[in-house]
Design goal:
Layout lengths: L9 H26 L10 H4 L9 H24 L6 H20 L5 H26 L13
Helix pairs in contact: 1-3, 1-4, 3-5, 4-5
Amino acid sequence: MFYGAVVWDPWLIVAQIVCLQCLYYVTLGVFLAILVGTRVSRMSLVYFFDYVTITTSTVTGWCVIAAFLLSSTAGAVYMLYLIERAKKCLDFSATIYIIHLFICIVYGGWPSSITWWVVNGTGLAVMALLGEYLCIRRELREIPITRYRSNV
């Protein structure tokens, strides 16, 4: 893993964004199925994209909030393996949440709930900061150098 002069590769960037976005939604779906699926009679895209479901007034709302925050934590781990650079973590995290905002606007309108903004802002911060922390830890590891001694 050598980080010298990096060639700008837009196809790689787009592929990384698509992979992260898909992994984020798959993970969110798994956590929603575990936390919310046991509480409601029918799961739907409402829990993914409608700001009304993110509420602190019901237990189901708290489960949705937990699913979103756990997904952002998993997203940080995905960035460790897909992005591998600490200085890119904020960019990719923000891109994931901006795309999520656009999908939410198309699906249910402009999110007017303060809770939605707090949960997604916290998720963005968790994903970016934890991703940077994990990537920095990997970047600062010692490089193992094996020495071969000749038996002369």
